[in-house]
Amino acid sequence: MAENYRQIKERIRALEAEAEQLRRQELRQIISDMRRKIRDYGINPDQLFGPDLSDLVRYRHPETGETWNGMGRPPNWIRGKNREQFRVD
């Protein structure tokens, strides 16, 4: 006998709940394994994620002190200008 819409929706809900439960169980194991490997190998956050580019300052406005790391859309104070005059050494 063919299932009706309501029966299929209920089966989908049950499968989604089961999938979420399995995901959480697997996630606990994965995180535990990752923590152990990080500890065993002495991995630090920079090695794992790279440097925090938000803290990197490549350009500074001489009057306002505003900064930009060179990533993404340039701020108005540097847009269309020679960036070398704002470069931080």
UniProtKB/TrEMBL annotation:
Membrane among keywords: no
InterPro entries (alphabetical): H-NS_C_dom
Domain (DNA-binding protein H-NS-like C-terminal): residue spans on this chain: 58-88
Classification via Gene3D superfamilies: 4.10.430.30
Entry coiled-coil feature ranges: 5-37
GO molecular function: DNA binding
Region feature (Disordered): 64-89
Keywords on record: Coiled coil
Source organism, top-level taxon: Bacteria
Name of the protein this chain belongs to: DNA-binding protein H-NS-like C-terminal domain-containing protein
Organism: Paraburkholderia saeva
